[in-house]
Structures are given as C-alpha cells and as structure tokens.
Amino acid sequence: MQKSLDDRPSGGVFILSLVLFVLFWTALAALKADRTVLPDPLEVARVFRSELAAGRLTRDLFATLSRVAVSFGLAMAIGTLLGILLGHFRRFNHWADPWVTIFMNLPALVLIVLCYLWIGLNEVAAVVAVTLNKTAMVMVTVRQGVRALDPALADLAFVARLSCRERLRHVILPQLGPWLAVAARNGIAVIWKIVLVVEFLGRSNGVGFRIHLYFQQFEVAHILAYSVSFVACMLAVERFLIQPWESRSTHWRRKAPDN
After folding, report:
1. In terms of residue numbers, what domain contains 144?
2. Dist. CA 90–CA 88, nearest whole Å
C-alpha cells in the first residue's frame, strides 16, 4: 500500500489547536484583568466587527495583502533565477558571494529607510524594500538546492537527449521543488512582517498603518483586531497553499511502490 504523503495535521487537530490558543489568550486576559492592556478575545471580536462594518479593515487588509503578494512574487522570481545561476556557475558564485552576504545581513529597517529616502514615500519604495529583503534569502535557498541536484539524473537527461525545456520541467524543477517550498514558507513568514514595518513607517493605508495609528492612541483592542485578521490570512495561506505545495513537491521522493 502507498504511504500517506500528507504531513499536515488533520482539520480537527488544526481547529482544536486554534481553540486552545484562544483559551490560552482568554486565561491570560483574565489573569491580567485590565482590558486596556490585554483585552479578551470577545472584546477584540467586537472591535473587529466594528472595523469591518465601517469598511476600514477590508480596505487596509486588502492593501497589505496586495503588497505582500507583489513583493513575494518578485522576490521568488528574482531570487530563484539568481539562485540557479549562483548554484550552476561557480565563478559567478565566487564573485557574487560577498554581495549575497551583505544583503543577507543588512537589517530590514535600514533598507526600508534607505528606499524611502532614495525613492520617496510611495508604493514603489515600499515594494522594493520588501523585495530586496526577501530576495537574498530565496537566492541562498535555491543555490543550495541547485548544488544538491543529482548528477545521475542530469546524465540520464543527457543520454535521453532531452531538450532544455524538458530538462527543466522533468529533471530540475522536481528536484528544486522542496527547496522552493522552503523558500516560499520562509518568505511568507518574513515578508508580511516586513510589509507591516514598511506601512508603519511610511504608508497611509494598510494593517501596519492602522497599528501605528492605534498605537499612538493606545487602543490595544484595535491593534489586536487588525493583527489577528492578518495573521488569520497568513494561517490560511500556510494551511491551504504552502503546506499542500510542500507535500506535492516531495511526492516523487517519498512515493512508495505498491506491494
């Protein structure tokens, strides 16, 4: 029989885990007993409904998700291309390695501030800052994946006289799949946090902007309402997009023959 290839927790376990988190939050709020410092989930839910009815939450959430999507797509595309080149061409990797190290260790806050100073307080600067922060991470991950490619499969493709397109589709991409999935998962975890900082510092809309606004007013319930709404979106992306992709990307490695 074929073994199960899905390592994701079942839907019941996933929901139960979230329920336990809400109970933990409720217990902490009750222990603190100060709604101005840590409101309970019911208070945050009331604020959530209010902001949703006013239309503010929908607009700002859409603005943030749009920036995340564009930055994520650009970072994955550019980082994957450069990672393949770095992993395939050793001389190019030697010359570019110091650059990669610099961008890997350059603080996100520095890049955000510099992009705002050089480009201006606009949408282009916001996207460029987030993309630059993520591209280096994708590049390093894909480079490692290229170095781990099985040379026997490359020889087999050469003997079979596969075209470049066929090699990419049937030999290279299946092997890079797990590495790309790791880059995507790490990217989602990092990019949305950087986007919030970008919005916090220099945008007039988005979840980060709202958090900044309500931080100045010390409205903790509003801060949590916007934070929870965005985290819920990221949980959905992780659960229904990233995890299935990661499972499919390793399918060919773990597939067991039928007995």
Report:
1. 55-253
2. 6
Cα–Cα distance, 42 to 97 (Å, whole number): 51
Q: What is the pLDDT of residue 4?
A: 44
Q: Please tell me whether residue 161 adopts helix, strand or coil conformation.
A: coil
Tell me how far apart the alpha carbons of residues 22 and 177 are, in angstroms, rounded to a whole number: 35
Cα gap 46→34, rounded to integer Å: 17
C-alpha torsion angle, residues 92, 93, 97, 100 (rounded to 10): 90
Distance CA 145, CA 149 (A): 7
Q: Which of 105, 5, 69, 120 is nearest to 234 (CA)?
A: 69
**Residue pair 112/194 in contact by the 8 Å Cβ criterion:** yes
Give the list of residues 6+ apart from residue 184 with CB closer than 8 angstroms, or none.
72, 76, 242, 245
Q: Is position 132 within any domain?
A: yes
Domain annotation covers residue 92: yes
Find out whether 28 and 38 touch, Cβ atoms under 8 Å. Answer: yes
The count of domains in the chain is 1
- What is the full DSSP assignment across 86-138? HHH-HHHHHHHHHHHHHHHHS-HHHHHHHHHHHH-SSHHHHHHHHHHHHHHHH
Write the pLDDT tens digit of every residue in 52-95. Answer: 998 899 999 999 999 999 999 999 999 999 998 898 888 888 89
Residue 133 inside a domain? The answer is yes
